[in-house]
Amino acid sequence: MNILSNFQYHAPKTKAEVLDLLADIGDKSKMLAGGTDLVIMLKEKMIQTENVINIADVKELSGIKFTDNGVEIGACTTISEIENSKELVEKYGALVYAASQLGSYQVRTMATIGGNISHSSPCGETPAPLSALNATVVIESKRGERTVKPEDFILGNRQNILEKDEMVTKFIIPEPVAHSAATYGNIGLRNAMEIDAVNMAVNIELEDDKKTIKSAKLIMGSVAPKPIVSEGVPSLLVGKELNDELIEKVGEAAMSEATPISDVRASAEYRKDVVGALARRLTKEAYNKAMEA
Ligand SMILES: Cc1cc2nc3c(=O)[nH]c(=O)nc-3n(C[C@H](O)[C@H](O)[C@H](O)COP(=O)(O)OP(=O)(O)OC[C@H]3O[C@@H](n4cnc5c(N)ncnc54)[C@H](O)[C@@H]3O)c2cc1C
């Protein structure tokens, strides 16, 4: 039956209280942020827990704060706050667009960015753009703080590097460098409420001539148990000007690195084709935007 099993409910109001609880009972607890993944898993008995620690009301963990070096986004910031942030859209548009693609209006209102990466689904919407934007994930426990890249946070399907007493507290995203731009794209079988069959983010940085590629990053989701950072695409692009022949090769390189499975959302063959199409489109878009940046 779809009802919750018994658990002890904790509602800390400060980050320090959350870290205390995690130190004491982290091994017997689940953290609840928006609950859009967790509550379903509890109801469907995919997981069980003795304690639920609700972190949604901890104000220190929420909000978008601009700094001299970029922006900090609290782990409990909702996807809808990110989607609707007029300040974020100019420099961090790839993340804002990805946020707009997650679930429905109702889901985005509850779901958090910390919950999205911590759920560590292969098809999660925000890890790829966070990675393309060179974000840092800040992880804290009573023992201290450590930071990792988004691509190093997720280890596999619903697996990540968090220890039982740790939580994600925020994301730090640097100011984009000159002549650079990031793009995000996703494809599902229909437009609304669809978990992605493939998602991808690309970041291109140009030299001062605004033509030659200085650095490139391409990350794809939903094509392997964890997001894949392409090794082939940067080595194809760096030092060159983009042209049609290169764009074709970018698509081929990304396809050769994707290892998708067939499931209810899409066949492996379809996913590979989508990887090629997204890689070509997003690379071209990022290059053109970087020329203007
Ligand atoms: C109808 C529907 C459609 C959806 N569509 C999409 C979609 O298109 N794309 C997509 O990516 N996702 C989708 N989701 C999944 C979900 O909404 C997102 O993954 C969401 O971002 C999860 O955030 P949350 O705050 O609800 O997490 P919760 O459900 O509260 O938590 C998820 C997991 O992360 C842990 N956790 C939460 N916060 C932290 C933290 N700060 N530190 C450490 N661990 C933490 C929890 O303990 C739990 O294990 C959908 C869900 C539903 C119900």
From TrEMBL:
Q: Which residues form the FAD-binding PCMH-type domain?
A: 2-178
Q: Does the keyword 4Fe-4S apply?
A: no
Pfam families according to UniProt: CO_deh_flav_C, FAD_binding_5
The UniProt keyword set, sorted, is: Flavoprotein, Oxidoreductase
> What name does the UniProt record give this protein?
Xanthine dehydrogenase family protein subunit M
* Species of the source: Peptostreptococcus equinus
What taxonomic classification does the UniProt entry list for its organism?
Bacteria, Bacillati, Bacillota, Clostridia, Peptostreptococcales
